[in-house]
Amino acid sequence: MSEAAVLARTSNGPITQERLHQDLTNIGLKAGMTLMVHTALSRIGWVCGGAQTLIAALLDAIGPNGNLVMSAQSPQLSDPQHWSDPPVPETWWETIRQNHPPFDACQTPTSRCGVVPEAFRLWPGTRRSSHPLVSLCAKGPAAEMLLADQPLHDPLGEASPLAKLEKLNALILMIGCGWETCTALHLAERRALPNAPRFSDGAPVIINGERQWISINMPLMDSETFVPVGQKIDGQSFMQHGHIGESFARFFPLQAASQIAEKLLRVS
């Protein structure tokens, strides 16, 4: 969305950190929460300070004892044979595999996650998990525990940061984005479809100080199936709906939503 379009949909002046804090409090955020956030910044309206202001408001709302988590995916490191938006010539594949910079938790940028997760990746004190394709970032007292030992071949399943978030009674905040963006529901998907087909992917990483291309046997995951599932979750009593700035928002517990999603995905 262009800045002009964002300005046009913003009423009552610039959206400040104070207003965001009030909206976040109204929807249910409290100090000490463990919170995973998905957001489309442009949907919120013209935020004075952009992503920096939103992240500051989120951290202020959950306080120093809270934990903030966001996706930090880097699909640009995946095997180029799977690229489709846009595809690259097959004659390029091996050159890319041999020359793309390896994953670095500090330096590798996020991709297709939006400006807020990228700004959060660079926020002082933010940590990042080690998966070269589907990492997560976190800040807070439990960040190191949440992100440790993310499985290479099943990064969003039972031993993943998502499962650890569930054990911490994490809540999910979705601001201006659809259910297909809800990374947290991949945990339910993996439980519902433990024997899902797998495909061969790969990524460049550093092993013992040397760059290597590694193979990754990833389960097929389909976030488009989250749309009808999310419609069922929207009607549950635990779901809080509200507005953050100009944007519609959803706020709900991961565990309760995951249980419903798992049942629905088993029969879909």
TrEMBL record:
Q: Which domain of life is it from?
A: Bacteria
| Catalysed conversion reaction | a 2-deoxystreptamine antibiotic + acetyl-CoA = an N(3)-acetyl-2-deoxystreptamine antibiotic + CoA + H(+)
Q: Which UniProt keywords apply?
A: Acyltransferase, Antibiotic resistance, Transferase
Q: What biological process terms from GO does the record include? A: response to antibiotic
Enzyme Commission designation:
2.3.1.-
Q: Which Pfam families match?
A: Antibiotic_NAT (PF02522)
Any one GO MF annotation of this record: aminoglycoside 3-N-acetyltransferase activity
Q: Which family does it belong to?
A: Belongs to the antibiotic N-acetyltransferase family.
What's the protein name?
Aminoglycoside N(3)-acetyltransferase
Q: Which organism is it from?
A: Neokomagataea tanensis
Top-down, what is the taxonomic lineage of the species of origin? Bacteria, Pseudomonadati, Pseudomonadota, Alphaproteobacteria, Acetobacterales
